[in-house]
Amino acid sequence: MHSMDRYAEIRKQTARVRERPLLAAPKIPNELELQARWFAGEFGRKFQTLVGELVEIVQFGFWNREAGPDFQDAAIRLAGGPILRGPIEIDLLDRNWELHGHATNPAFDDAILHVFLERSGVEFFARTSTHRNVPQIQLDLAALRDAAAGMVPLAHAGRCVAPLRNLEAERVTSVLEAAAKFRLRQKANRLRQRIEVHGRDEALFQAIAEALGYKQNRLPFTLLAQRLPLAFLRKLREDAEALLFGVAGFLDTPDLDRQRKSTRSYLRSLWDRWWK
Q1: Cα–chain center distance at 11
Q2: Residue 100 near residue 126 (C-beta atoms within 8 A)
Q3: How much is the average pLDDT of 221-245?
Q4: Residue range 177-192, pLDDT digits in tens
């Protein structure tokens, strides 16, 4: 058995081999993080509705930058039937469909799927203002376990230090190389999953943005790359810079008087292109 596979098997079968992150991943992500991870395909593409019907996500759609459901122009296949196209709404709680007024908002009438993370004590149906029932699926945080483990860097000695201390240098090197290859394979699998969802160019664009966000701004950079897809920016090359700054929230007010003249001209051009 390859050393990497052996390491993976040991890691799976015993609690003695673990990679403890510096910061524990939050038990419940906030709604933006949940939406970003859904859009990245980290939860997968095949699910089961609350009534037992199989759902396949054919196309995750596009972030909605206006009022209405979170994602527009998505496509799903329900119970092996024809492809359904329309918006998808994502909430932390199942009851948020009612609490947020989606049931009486015509903007949600075309929704094809309601995705949520936690169920409340009372059974809820995602109905539209026309009294149509919207299929619902519940996400499983366990699907994010491996992804979350690889997103936070290590910064202190773990439980492996003691047993490794007495091993020969070659043996220690072999174990560390196996662990490194295992982690690399995990990252490759996540990137491959993203490629299957969004294609090579978009997957690389999102991965680069995520890396540029480092630890503190990984989520904002990921959201920025998802909300402004590379294909969209390529069509608007002259406005791409202004769009990135604008969507990031840096062009809400010009506030030009506080800037130097050279900077003022640059900011003004960005602001004009963003608000045109």
Answers
A1: 26
A2: no
A3: 93
A4: 888 888 888 888 888 8
On whether residue 200 sits in a domain, the answer given is no
- Which runs of E-coded beta strand occur in the chain? 46-48, 54-59, 62-63, 71-78, 83-93, 113-118, 126-127, 133-134, 136-138
Which run of H or of E encompasses 123?
none
Both tokens assigned to 80: 């092996």
- What DSSP string runs through 33-52? HHHHHHHTTTT-SEEEBTTS
What whole-number distance in Å separates Cα of residue 54 and Cα of residue 48? 5
* Cα–Cα distance measured from residue 190 to residue 111, given in angstroms and rounded to the nearest whole number: 28
Total domains, the chain = 2
**Residue 272 is encoded by which pair of tokens?**
């004009």
Mean pLDDT of the chain, nearest integer:
84
Q: Do 90 and 35 meet the contact criterion of CB atoms below 8 Å apart?
A: yes
249 falls within a domain? yes
Residue 163's region, left for phi above 0, alpha for psi from -120 to 50, else beta, is: alpha
| pLDDT tens-digit readout, 116-139 | 999 887 777 899 999 999 999 999
Strand partners, 127: 133
Q: 98, 116, 144 — which closes off a domain? A: 144
Structural domain includes residue 197: no
DSSP 8-state symbol, 250: S
